[in-house]
């Protein structure tokens, strides 16, 4: 099939605009690469959007990185961050004046409004109050997911956004990843006929699970949010967005099975650094992960200008003093390490979602089953099979991942969201976004109802 025929057949669109043929290139045989061109609805604006970042950790630096790369679009002029190292680093990157640096989010709002927008990238349990206050003061908001820890708080933020008329963009960044954009477009174009069902897998990857949901900030659901919202509200959202039908009911099962005290190996200790006799053979060794592999060390606040020996010494010191050095079997964690959810959407479309900790790989896997074909992919390749002809087409997305956060698992969606948010704020047009709070809240409600189902062992209705 030639390129023109491929474009016609697949109905490749972005909004109502045909994607130009130069965004698709044949690799070999029936395999094509593609990229998403700039949104044609984007328009020039006179000066960059100004923003204050609340929370200068991982996600705050992802969106801050967009501002550093594109200062003509986004200018970070303030930061609230209680950890001095992070506050200093962020202020240095963005040249934030001393008067616009704050320890807490409350301090920011003691001043009259002094920016166009607020980026809320603090821990999950600290989303609600600053979001409500920012809306009250007239700020537009880029809100890291989950929206808030409870259904009531999510609904309150939605109501406040409507009352104030402000823009609230929820960071459901998978909606902006070229892989999922194309999946949605093809389904809407009828590439596989009517959709019957979806199977979606999120393989967390075993060391990521240990890092974030056993040792890390989200290890305790009562202090943060349930793992289905903290990690997988992306996935509930992308299933719903791709199917493009309202959800009706949901049932869920899952539990914490492995990372428990009764599974601690004989000879293990409270910390990997405390003479554990099985540390060398443990797949969750903190020494192997943080010291030897150098993985996921951003959370340890190691200065960039430290020498290799200094970094090693600092990492070891952190393993002696923080949760990141503790034994995964002896933490006060309660997040399920495996979780399955079944959803019924309108028109009797069904979906099964599985979140699995025990994988050697990451990268979401999706299978969509239609009356006239199916599609399957892993975010690096999307394979479409036409039942009528028996032929396959393979599409490989080309996307720019965030510098310094390669393999984020978001398929390049982070900065594409930031780009659209800036446009939405600059032109006061929420239609520039696909993840406004109005669009994003249903998948959060699905998550809350799934947790209710898991705990009550009953099928639960989803009421938007």
From TrEMBL:
Residues 184-376 form the Gfo/Idh/MocA-like oxidoreductase C-terminal domain. Residues 54-171 form the Gfo/Idh/MocA-like oxidoreductase N-terminal domain. It holds the Pfam family GFO_IDH_MocA_C. SUPFAM superfamilies: Glyceraldehyde-3-phosphate dehydrogenase-like, C-terminal domain, NAD(P)-binding Rossmann-fold domains. GO terms for molecular function: nucleotide binding. This is Gfo/Idh/MocA family oxidoreductase. It comes from Hufsiella ginkgonis.
């Amino acid at each position: 099939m030639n390129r023109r025929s491929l474009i016609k057949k697949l109905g490749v669109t972005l909004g109502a605009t045909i994607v130009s043929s130069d965004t698709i290139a044949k690799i070999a045989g029936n395999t094509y690469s593609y990229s998403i061109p700039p949104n044609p609805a984007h328009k020039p604006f006179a000066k960059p959007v100004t923003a204050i970042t609340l929370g200068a950790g991982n996600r705050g630096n992802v969106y801050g990185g967009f501002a550093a790369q594109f200062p003509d679009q986004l200018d970070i002029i303030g930061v609230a961050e209680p950890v001095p190292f992070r506050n200093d680093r962020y202020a240095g990157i963005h040249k934030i004046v001393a008067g616009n640096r704050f320890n807490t989010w409350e301090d920011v709002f003691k001043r009259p409004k002094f920016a166009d927008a607020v980026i809320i990238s603090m821990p999950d349990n600290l989303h609600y109050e600053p979001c409500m206050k920012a809306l009250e003061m007239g700020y537009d908001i880029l809100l890291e997911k989950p929206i808030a820890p409870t259904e009531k708080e999510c609904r309150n933020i939605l109501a406040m956004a409507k009352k104030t008329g402000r823009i609230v963009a929820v960071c459901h960044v998978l909606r902006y990843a070229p892989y999922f954009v194309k999946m949605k477009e093809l389904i809407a174009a009828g590439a596989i006929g009517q959709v019957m069902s979806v199977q979606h897998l999120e393989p967390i990857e075993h060391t990521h699970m240990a890092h974030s949901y056993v040792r890390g900030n989200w290890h305790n659901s009562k202090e943060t949010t349930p793992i289905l919202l903290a990690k997988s509200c992306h996935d509930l959202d992308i299933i719903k967005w791709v199917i493009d039908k309202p959800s009706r009911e949901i049932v869920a099962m899952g539990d914490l099975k492995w990372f428990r005290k009764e599974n601690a190996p004989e000879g293990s200790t409270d910390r990997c650094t405390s003479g554990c006799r099985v540390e060398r053979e443990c797949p969750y060794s903190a020494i192997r992960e943080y010291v030897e592999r150098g993985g996921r060390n951003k959370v340890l606040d190691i200065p960039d200008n430290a020498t290799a020996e200094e970094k090693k010494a600092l990492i070891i010191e952190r393993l002696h003093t923080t949760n990141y050095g503790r034994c995964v079997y002896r933490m006060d964690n309660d997040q399920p390490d495996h979780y399955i959810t079944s959803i019924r959407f309108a028109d009797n479309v069904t979906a099964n979602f599985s979140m699995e900790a025990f994988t050697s790989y990451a990268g979401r896997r999706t299978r969509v089953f239609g009356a006239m074909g199916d599609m399957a992919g892993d975010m690096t390749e999307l394979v479409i099979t036409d039942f009528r002809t028996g032929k396959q087409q393979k599409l490989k997305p080309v996307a720019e991942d965030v510098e310094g956060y390669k393999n984020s698992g978001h398929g390049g969606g982070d900065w594409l969201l930031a780009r659209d948010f800036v446009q939405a704020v600059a032109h006061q047009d929420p239609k520039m976004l696909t993840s406004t709070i109005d669009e994003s809240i249903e998948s959060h409600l699905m998550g809350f109802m799934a947790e209710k189902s898991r705990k009550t062992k009953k099928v639960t209705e989803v009421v938007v």
